[in-house]
Each structure stands twice: as C-alpha cells, then as structure tokens.
Amino acid sequence: MITAASPSLRSYKFPANATVHGKLAAYLALRYSGNDSEYRPWQDIWPSREEFEAILPILWGKRARELLPEDAKALVAKQRHKLDADFDTLRPSIPSISKDLFTYTWLIVNTRTFYWDYPDLPRASPRLPKKRSLLTPDDCYAMCPFMDYFNHSDRGCETKHDAKGYYVYADRDYKAGAEIYVTYGTHTSSFLLVEYGFILWPRNAHDSLPLDHLLLPLLSPSQSAVLKEDGFYANYTLIPARRALGAGYAEESADDDDDDDGTEAATRAKQGVVTTTCHRTQAALRLLTLPARRYAAFVSGADEGTEAEQQVVDRYLCDVLKKYQRRIGDVKEEVEALDVDVDAKPRDADERPRAEQKETLLRRWTQIQRIVNAAVDDLGG
Q1: What torsion, rounded to 10 degrees, do the Cα atoms 274, 278, 281, 286 define?
Q2: Which of 29, 82, 253, 279 is geometrically suited to a Cys-Cys bond with 105, CB 3.0 to 4.6 A?
Q3: Which CATH number fits domain 2-191: 3.90.1410.10, 3.10.105.10, 1.20.272.10, 3.90.1150.10?
C-alpha cells in the first residue's frame, strides 16, 4: 500500500505544501520508467494514456466537453485546477518529469485511490496533522494495488481498513468465475464519469440531479444575499423517483423502511416512489414563490408550510423542469448528430469526438432525461 506516510515516498522530500494527491502522482512518475520498479506488475495493468484520453472528460476534445451536463463541466473545471496547481507546486522537485507524464500519473492516482484516514495518525508522517479532526478528505488518499482488480457497482462488497491495510468482505456467496465488485461510494453518474471515466448503465441507485444551474439564475441579487445569509445558497438537488434510475428499480420495494411519519405523500417520497428535493432546494423555491414571512418560517423550522404552499412550489419547479426538458432534447440531438472520428489524434483540442465519447454522452443525457421526465410527472406536469 502507498500513502503519504510511506517511507519510500517520504524519502523524496517533496514540498511540505504539496497535496497528498500531488505527492503520490510525483512519486509514481519518478518510479514509472524503471524496469526494475517493484510496481511494474501493477503498472502493466494500468490503463494506457490513450485509453484515458478516450474515457476521461478532462482529456476530451473541446466539442465533447461542451456537450457534458452542467455538473460534469463544473467537476472537470475543478479537476483541471487541482491538476495544474499540483504540477506548479511540484515542478521544481521533479524537473525530469514532463507535464504529460505527471498528468498521466495524477489521473492514475485520481482513478485508483481509496479513502485512508491513517489509523496510526500521530506517527504516520510529520507533514500530516496530529489530530484526526484536522484531516481533510484531500489528506485521506491511499493506493492499494490489489484493489485495482475490483470494479465499481452501486452494490458491492464491504471494504474496511486498519493500520495494517485494507480488507474486502464479500456481501454474499459468489460462484467461481463470477466478477466481484466493490462500491466507490454513493456517487452520481456525472461524478463517476469525470473522476473514473465510466457511468453505471442502465442503472445507478445513487444518481441525482444538481439544480444549481437551473435555480441560481432565477434569483435576484437580494434573494441570493438572503439565502447566503441563511446558509441556503446553492447545492440544490433533485432526488429521483426509483423508477427513473433505470431498469429494475421501479419493481423494487422499500419495505425495509416501515417508518411512517404520518402522511402518505411523505412516506411515498421516503420510499422513492416519487421525486423529492433536498431541504435546501425547498428553501430556495419558497423564497422564489412565497411571501418572505413564509420563507422565513420555513427556514427557521417553525413551520413546514401548508399543502397549498407546497403545490405552488411544485408547480414552479415543474415549469423550470419543463424548460430543461426541451434543453435536454436539444442537446441529445446535438450529440446524435456528432461526426465521430475513430482515429482522432490524442490531445487535439479541435478533434472530432470519438465513438465511445458520443455513446457515453448519449447515455448520460438519457439518464438525466429519465430523471427529469419522472419529476415532471410527479409534480403534476
């Protein structure tokens, strides 16, 4: 296992202000070309740079990136900023490493790390916080080569770790020859695409739809200020009905959750029968549609609102989603009309999208279309 606390990595004395991600990428880049590297058997099963260029949006051509959903575009921009910042920080320490090789190993780290919170933290590394409460998610990276043999599913084996390493526990009995999966977490398909280069198709139990790109432009400056002051600005999410998540989910019941909070509508929402939105979204929608005093009562927790008010909120959101339905249809037409190039040159910003990129875009927009269509139906559209 490789972590920021590994003696072999620490021996390179990378800058103290370099991120754990950057240090791991620099370490792998420095060890990459050595035929006698202890990691050679592991490196031999890594995706090639050409394969990364086909599947990871950060390496796609301009036209394919333009057709990504809005949440995926934002994730790519954030990813690009992190990559560039890591290389700028580490470049003086790795003068022999090209940006191209660093990008490759940075993406190897990005697609192959696991959460690791340093069980022996006080002794782990002098460059890590001594208190667990001071660790950030960006500190908690580890690479475990054997774990590369497990692919992701929204349901899979349980993973645990301690000071000695990682453990994988089967979630059921497996027949010889059956593929065994782990789950990387409760991630949307857009997140999986940007971070790992794939989407779960046709079903992803953890998919959802961010609404910031639809709701934030509707807010006036004063409304934005109110939401920021109250802590309800941005991070709005549509939680899909179970039937919108792909084949199989519509038939699954939620009988394992028998608690009833007193209303049929609330119970149906909790069981995934209908589309719901997060509390933050409900707050923003109330500010957009109801008197200020009713919004204030909602965010204070004094009053959850009346059924009539909820209908007003639902109608407003339904109209917003209907407009987005038309946008989704337009984008899918653009994707379907793409002229693909199976022999596109690597890293050509003006290259025609590759066939697999076109297919991935169509699948992702189809997933989003299902979510939005089900939401419009549930909201009375």
Answers
A1: 70
A2: 29
A3: 3.90.1410.10
